[in-house]
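pinned: reference chain
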Amino acid sequence: MSETRKTMTYAGAALLLLTLAFLTAPRHITPDAFLDRGEAFFPEFTDPNVATTLEVIEFDEETAAARPFKVTFNENKWTIPSHHNYPADGKERLAKTAAGVIDIKKDDFRSNNVADHEAFSVLDPLDQTVTTLKGRGKRVTIKGDSGQILADLIIGNKLEGRANLRFVRLPDQKRVYVSRIDIDISTKFEDWIDRALLQVNQRDIEQMTLKDYSINERTGTINQRDVVILDRDQDSWKANRMSSTQEVDSTKIDDLLRAIEELSIVGVRPKPAGLSRNLSRTEGGAGMSQADLLSLQGKGYYFTRDANLVSNEGELEIRSSQGVLYTLRFGEILYGTGDAVTAGTDSGNEEEEQERGPGENRYLFITASFDPNRFPEPAGPNNADFLNKPEDDWSDTDRQNKELQDQHDEWLRKVEEARELSDQLNTRFADWYYVISSSSFDKVHLKRSDLIKKKD
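pinned: its structure tokens
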């Protein structure tokens, strides 16, 4: 064998051995389950401002039923369908929630086994085929303008010792991931509404009238126990029927003013259709339907013989410098917790709810009206001759008439603004019975003895 032939033989053998070594050498193989690690759950959802609906489904183990909460933009307004379409202040919060969902990524793969779903609490709360009450997650769905689903995922338990890490699963997949979630996906009614219920600043409150009375619900007669009229006098307050040795407790009045400004609700109930309109058109309930009257009475509101609407826990009237008269009527006690308070979902009879206490709340009926006494009409000009003259030719009388005209125009402007504000507020209050907490009720439902003290 020639040297050349030997060399070629050796080279071929070396190449064969090298190929065998490559084929048989151990290699690091990445399982398919880890291939999408680090990816976004919804890569096509990038703009949080296109979100118009958020729906969160939680599972109530006590009632063995799914509990929905929904915020949506419909007919040019934000509403909460799960709470009788009550107006929501939700655009900014929804955008923040959507941005947080966009940021959720598949940080790590955890399981591909359906048997692990209960332990990780990523069972679908809407899945009726699942028999266990444990292990249901929170299903979060975000939709766009035309109802297309932008994001839909089930959020489960936190990882032990890692507060921001949770188990996450897509509803149509069995894979479970670990993801960092830094958003608060709130289903609290109070987090999605305008908390400034009365929209009045305590500095604008000029007078408060506390009407303390009781009602004979059978006869409709009223027993007026006391009427406390509180008037602002610059930086202090005065009350009617005070003796020379008494004064208004400044600390208590400040607490009352703060409670009025910060008054917030914990629930709502819709009034029967047309009830508010009927109240404004009729006297003493005449012409109102039986359903309207029963609705009022069930919440603690009645008509007296002299055609006044009263409440079984008295009233608070508030007059503001903006020309609005607020009337707060305090009604029946409402027991319960959770959705039974916020939306009125039935979870049992009243006795059962009381046994579950605490959870005592109170119905509140609010109206707003224009207060004409706040803006007495000033005298108008004797004539308008000055309008037809150059200003340089005005006489002293013309200048006086011009000043009177300006004052009258300013009065008209204030009256128009006050009417517009009172109409807006009354429209806002018209369709709803509100529910306030017992603590809020105690702060604004006061008596003379709560506010008047002996002079120091």
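why pinned: Residues 34-192 form one domain. The chain has two domains: 34-192, 202-374+427-454.
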